[in-house]
Amino acid sequence: MRNDSVPPVRTAAHLPSLRDGIGWVIAVCLSIFCSIGQTNAQSIKGSADRPNVVILLADDAGWGDFSSSGNRSVSTPRIDSLASSGAKFDRFFVCPVCSPTRAELLTGRYHPRGGVRGVSEGAERLNLDEVTLAQWFQANGYATGCFGKWHNGSQGPYHPRARGFDEYFGYTEGHWGEYFNPPLENQEGRMVSTQGYIVDVLTDRALDFIERKHKQPFLCFVPFTTPHSPWGVPASDWKRFQNKEIVQSGRNRGQEKLDETRCALAMLENQDRNVGRILDKLDSLQIADNTIVIYFSDNGPNTERWNGGMKGRKASVDEGGVRSVCYCRWPSKIAAGNVVQPIAAAIDWLPTLVSLAQLSGASKLPLDGIDLSPWLIAKEPAIEPTPDRILYSTWNGKISARSQRYRMDSDGKLFDMEMDPNQNKACELTSEAERIAFERLESGMRVWKEEVLQGGKLPKDSRPIPVGNSPLPITHLPARDGIGTGAIRRSAPAPNSSYFVNWQSVDDYIEWNVSVENQGTYRVAIDFTCPQSSVGAVLQLAFGNSLLEKKLETAWDPPLYEDQDTIERPKAESRMKPFQTLELGKIRLSKGEGKLQLRAVSIPDGTVIDLRRLTLEYEPSDAPK
Fold it and tell me: Is the CB of residue 178 less than 8 Å from the CB of residue 564?
């Protein structure tokens, strides 16, 4: 679905509420950055070909997980080559967890502004009034494709194919339970079986897209799935690490599980190989010179492992939880070995890429990010940092703020990140510079909390799940987005990639809060397992006055997978099994909001089913005239 009317770019400098007090300073700084970026865009205008863009995003990789960062237990030469042949960001910041970073990359805005307030159960969805990076490129004639973990909405208008991506293949949840021969969502929105390791499979799809689209400008987004758990990696990669000595320890040495460290690093070496495959494809097609390649991660490391000694890891708002490597290569424009000194963040990529690719149109909403192209395509003498900006990080009600030199943590303590990069001792505020920095960051955090977090922690997400959205007729309703009543529960505490279990009573049911967007007939299917004792049970799906019943006539009771995990997966995550798809029939749904309920009106013996997802497919031919 194209968006051909992208409105003019605006930055946080356009926000009246930021012009009060310290906010005015921030606004002026951002305005200066943007005016420089516009001048720089004019300097590269006239290029014969618009650049292709490839964005590579790691999942849960820490700053310290790369040999370019000094890790002596891992080898990541192809990822490192992006730094040596292009630009390296000295201090680059993302969010403490996955979906917020993705939202900030896509919009150039802090994630709470776009409605992203969690990582599951619908709270990861990006508001529909947000214009995404993909929509920008799509509206400017680019072919757009996303291959991997989306994590900003699964259904209808939140789906990547409704947010600017012509093509999509991957999974939309926060993490996936099968890394070998995984079931994934294809271009038509159907779950299909694949063969191989998930990172290899998704890279294959990205390579196919690049091969087919390389004669026109393209945007290819590859959000990798690793080194996020579960802990599964190909045997050839694990063989190198299984007994490997880990020569650098995490900050909290006693909490480190060495096999998890080994597996995470083995995952990154596999990912490095796949990054190399993409770079080799650009070379073979002779388009590398005019292709912008960006690589970074979505948050800090997901376990206690070496991260340069920084305080914090994934889910933390301290430096180690939000700092990432970030490399950008564009051989025809960016000098090899360039180091970008000003602090930067995921929110900056949208305005920067709009400038570099000379896209027409603009953002519908004010941006928090700034155009970094002056530092990427720097002329001699090198551009000095503009007046200091402040970057904010938030998660689970905690906030921290980072200036070029200082960080204020969630307890209001100030740290000098030049003298004390590991946040070992808070500043005593004995110097005038420290007192000024303290007052500035404290005031900035107070204003930011009031404006962006609406005074505190955002309320629980209550948006219904859209069903039957045009032009995406297939709606998946996974267990993650449903509610089990009575004794019904999810297979593990983490909602993503879970399934409902312990369904034993006719009084218990599963429901989803939905909004039917198109009235008409829907084909219904479930992905289930059940023992022989469940045969004969009658399932009933209800929405308003509409009912559909189906008797279970066959059992499907496979064991849990034994070959998915290299080492034991976290207890919070579900162990998976192969689910079978069963067509329940058709149901007429009226337009409107309500509870879609799946019940068992008859149970012959024991349990009913384990349920991974319910799928509704709208049949437009039956729509009212």
Answer: yes
Domains, the chain, ranges and CATH? 12-386 (3.40.720.10), 399-452 (no CATH), 465-622 (2.60.120.260)
Q: What are the tokens at 51? A: 């650049």
Q: Are 219 and 143 in contact (CB under 8 A)?
A: yes
For the chain, the distance separating the N- and C-terminal CA atoms, rounded to the nearest angstrom, is: 23
> Within the chain, what is the greatest distance between any pair of CA atoms?
80
Q: Which helix (H) or strand (E) holds 448?
A: helix 432-452
DSSP state of 158: G
**Distance in angstroms (rounded) separating the CA atoms of residues 512 and 477:** 8
| pLDDT confidence band for 33 (50 / 70 / 90) | very low
Please report, rounded to a whole number, the percentage of residues in the chain having pLDDT higher than 90: 86
Between CA 542 and CA 597 the distance in angstroms is 5
Dist. CA 484–CA 600, nearest whole Å? 13
DSSP state of 570: P
The structure tokens 């709470």 sit at 112
- Token code pair at residue 602: 């008859």
Q: What is the CA radius of gyration of the chain?
A: 25
The answer, yes or no, to whether the previous bond of 570 is cis (omega within 30 of 0) is: no
* Alpha carbon distances (Å) from 450 to 18, 21, 554: 11, 14, 56
Helix axes 258-284, 198-213, angle to 10 degrees: 20
Cβ–Cβ under 8 Å, residues 308 and 69: yes
> CB 488: neighbour CB atoms within 10 A?
20
Residues 6+ apart with CB under 8 A from 432: none
Q: Is the pLDDT score of 276 beyond 90?
A: yes
The answer to whether 491 touches 500, Cβ cutoff 8 Å, is yes
Looking only at the bridges linking them, the beta strands covering 500-501 and 580-589 are unpaired
Q: Name which of 390, 370, 409, 364 is nearest 452 in CA terms.
A: 390
Both structure tokens of 11: 């930055």
Is a pLDDT exceeding 90 seen at residue 99?
yes
315 vs 400: CA distance, rounded Å: 12
Distances (CA, A) of 156 to 59, 149, 173, 179, 518: 24, 17, 14, 26, 11
CB neighbour list of residue 101: distance below 8 Å, 6 or more residues apart: 57, 94, 95, 111, 298, 299, 346
Torsion of CA 300, 303, 306, 310, to 10 degrees: 50
For residue 12, give every residue at least 6 positions away whose Cβ sits within 8 Å of its Cβ, in sequence order, or none: 18, 26, 27, 30, 366, 367, 368
pTM exceeding 0.90: yes
- Looking from the CA of 355 toward its CB, the CA atoms found within 13 Å total 29
Find tokens 């993705």 and name the residue: 102
Q: Are 306 and 336 in contact (CB under 8 A)?
A: no
SS3 310: coil
Give CA–CA dist 337/393, Å, rounded: 29
Give dist(CA 115, CA 454) in Å, integer.
12
Task: Tell me whether residue 262 is exposed, middle or buried, using C-beta atoms within 10 angstroms of its C-beta: 0 to 12, 13 to 18, 19 or more.
Answer: buried
pLDDT (0 to 100) of residue 385:
62
E strand or H helix that includes residue 615: strand 610-618
**pLDDT tens-digit profile of 411-452?**
999 999 999 999 999 999 999 999 999 999 999 999 999 999
